[in-house]
Write a structure and sequence with these properties.
Oligomer: single chain
Bound molecules: cytidine-5'-triphosphate
Number of domains: 4
Strand order of the largest sheet: 5-6-7-4-3-10-11
Largest sheet: 7 strands, mixed
Strand content: 5-15%
CATH architecture of the largest domain: 2-Layer Sandwich
Structural class: alpha+beta
Number of strands: 13
């Protein structure tokens, strides 16, 4: 981190920032140049400034303009290309960068500096265009309420009206006002994410605001909003610790006391990537939910599938893994064909999750080999032999495949012989 103090301001030396690639820097220069020529002040805000000081990888670039972000975006597209996706309600836009920029991230958020008014606790706010100062004051935590100005001679100038830098140094997560968690209870999740991600703590004055009053509002949030927060947690490296933290704060009980804790035994499993021989990669978020609910009874899985608005795929995979886990003991000595018939009814990721948790070799055999086993003889061959079409086909092919799986047939000749005995 490099800062340079002059008499009035702190200037960040963005040119030398290790966390910015030269392409990202060039992009910021382009925005700065347009912003200067249009006389619309532009600022990098939020996560970028926080991560600049923490010297962490930049995940996204959020730009606030003191003017209309959609019009600003249209000017960017006109001058540099790319595509704009405007959201008129909030006067924000996503600028999808021209592919020639070859840059990560491939889009950036443009935001009209605004005031937010929360008419009802927990509901989305109504907004009013305003100054950068107001825009910083509507935010969640002091460490996220800093901005860096980009236009003209201001390039690199730090705005930190709420002393975010101090809190970063003290490793503190602190809300900006006492109604913050009531206005937007998803901030309780956000506080935990930042606290665990950076090994910070929630300032005592903010900690006491995680209380029955904000919980009452949290309880009213839609399943979709809550699941989004859990999704974000599962994208994080320290997701299991974040869940444990939320549990300790009493957040789980807000949804229902039957919401299980994440089983500590499974805490390292999320980080493992599926061995190449498995031939598929598991989505970390889905895997997170499966491990979380693996030991739960079906009615609990059903309840939270609804409460957290799981997609139908996620619901199905979570139910399947919980059920399969129950059936595991009865399958232990089963032949490969029996395993395969059972496992083929289950989403692959559920089999994988249970393999991670149980180390049952049959689950691995299924994922690597058994699921790919096919008969050489096909329905067409049966037809060519003059067997009348009907349910018999399925039966015969099933028996042939089982014989391959169980090692009773080892080559095409033996398969042919078996077929003859079946006819
Ligand atoms: N923000 C907020 N309240 C929220 C969500 C977001 O005040 N409920 C503000 C914060 O200032 C935050 C910025 O919007 O910094 C951008 O939000 P987001 O992209 O979710 O977070 P980042 O700061 O980019 O952090 P992360 O690394 O978690 O993505």
């Amino acid at each position: 981190m490099t800062t340079h103090k002059n008499t009035h301001n702190i200037k960040l030396e963005l040119e030398n920032a290790r966390i910015l690639s030269s392409r990202q820097l060039a992009l910021l220069r382009k925005i700065a140049s347009l912003s200067e020529s249009l006389h619309i002040p532009a600022y990098l805000v939020g996560g970028f400034v926080r991560d600049y000081f923490l010297e962490k990888q930049v995940n996204d670039l959020d730009i606030v303009v003191e003017g209309d972000a959609i019009e600003f975006g249209e000017s960017l597209v006109k001058k540099y290309g790319g595509k704009l996706t405007p959201h008129t309600k909030f006067r924000t836009a996503i600028w999808n960068l021209p592919s020639s920029f070859i840059i990560y991230p491939s889009s950036l958020d443009l935001i009209t500096a605004r005031n937010e008014i929360y008419k009802t606790p927990g509901a989305l706010p109504t907004i009013k265009p305003s100054t950068i100062d107001d825009d910083l004051r509507r935010r969640d935590f002091t460490i996220n309420a800093m901005a860096v100005r980009l236009d003209g001679d201001h390039f690199g100038e730090l705005l930190d009206p709420l002393n975010g830098q101090d809190d970063l140094e003290k490793k503190l997560i602190r809300v900006l006002h006492s109604r913050s968690f009531i206005d937007d209870p998803t901030r309780i999740f956000r506080a935990v994410r930042y606290a665990v991600r950076y090994s910070f703590i929630l300032h005592p004055s903010s900690f006491i605001l995680v209380n029955p009053e904000s919980f009452a509002v949290l309880k009213t949030l839609s399943g979709e909003r809550i699941r989004h927060e859990f999704d974000l947690i599962f994208e994080e490296e320290k997701s299991v610790r974040m869940l444990a933290h939320l549990h300790e704060l009493g957040v789980f009980d807000v949804f229902n006391p039957s919401l299980p804790k994440f089983n500590n035994k499974y805490s390292n499993l999320l980080d493992a990537s599926a061995p190449a021989e498995f031939g598929f990669s598991a989505n970390r978020i889905t895997l997170g939910y499966l491990l979380w609910f693996m030991d739960s009874p079906a009615d609990v899985v059903e309840f939270f599938s609804k409460r957290f608005d799981f997609t139908s795929e996620l619901r199905e995979a979570a139910l399947a893994v919980a059920q399969l886990k129950n059936d595991l003991a009865s399958l232990t000595d089963a032949k490969p064909s029996k395993w395969t018939m059972r496992l083929e009814k289950v989403p692959l990721i559920s089999v994988y999750a249970l393999w991670l948790a149980s180390n049952q070799p049959a689950l691995k055999d299924f994922l690597v080999n058994w699921r790919h086993v096919k008969t050489t003889i096909t329905g067409d061959d049966l037809k060519a032999r003059g067997i009348p079409t009907g349910p018999r086909y399925k039966e015969i092919l099933f028996q042939l495949r089982s014989a391959w799986l169980d090692g009773d047939v080892k080559n095409d000749k033996e398969e042919e012989e078996l077929l003859n005995t079946l006819l």
